[in-house]
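ok so I'm stuck.
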Amino acid sequence: MMHIKQGSIVLLFSILLASCGGRSPFTAEVKIIEEPKEMSDLTMEKVESEYVYSLFFSVCDSILISSTPGVTDYNFHVADIKNHKELGSFMHRGEGPAEYLGLTPIYRIEKKNEELVALTFDPFKKRLLEWNISKSIELGRDSITFLGYYKDSNEYGLTYARIYRLGEDKYLGRTPGMSFLDPDTEPLLPSYWFLEGFDNAPTHGISILKRPADNIESYGAPGACLSPDKSKVVEAMGAFAQINIVDLEENTVKSYRMAGSPDESNTADSDNKSYEFQDVASDVNSIYALYCGESPAAFQDKGGCLWLYQFDWDGNIEKKYLLPIAIRRLWMDLCTNTLYGYCGPEDAIYKLNINE
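replied:
not stuck anymore, here's the structure
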């Protein structure tokens, strides 16, 4: 049984594992899929801007937000990439009034009453915040709405890596897997938790694993994103060429692994370890997963990944692209349906022309 603060909360293994058996630690039966034999061309267009400050970036139309955790005096920097203009820096870092010791990067930008807003949270004080980006730009100062405090899903201080808003007072928190030195303490499974109510307490959760696995931290996903309609989460795994699609309405998980992917031995620390998927983004019709397939040293030397795989929401690979420039992170601008990538060596972002 997973250790959690709220004894009445039960992880929905009974639903998720009804049809699962065997020795695999995964909740769902992992379906092996073949990749296309032919490669598709993809052009990339550099966004000329001197205001890209971090790989933790987000874009909505002409608005670029750079999240700089622990690097600058402010948590967020905003620029207009069409008019090449800096629009301001917001949420001063500190422990004083109206300051924030640390805020999570922006993982979703939405429109609310024709204004751009985004969810962020303070993992030190466990506060959920709504940032009104449009009003902050207009006023030249922070425009923040405090949404409430949230409660962790466990008793060990392992907080959420991400929190998404699903609806009015409904949120989804993601926790990584974790093992402990104490052999009597059962590892925590990587999970998605549903939070509701004023105090944002978790009501139930879903895990991609049905049981603890060796080196459970290696079963993490470097990239994950919420679908545009907020009905699913897709995550791309770092140790396997595998994506997991979590259906938030049906409480189910489906896993798809590319033929030839490393097996579970790739989760161990070894000279033969490889980086597989490194990030993921999505639109209404497709999932875009950034793929390395090489050693950590090769990933660092190239500054990112040279392959992009396009899936449909049924887990089928539609296209594979060879990128002309190595990319380290993806972002889907849902305002314009434009896919962006961050290039580390250049500290720049590119448009990936997937719609050509």
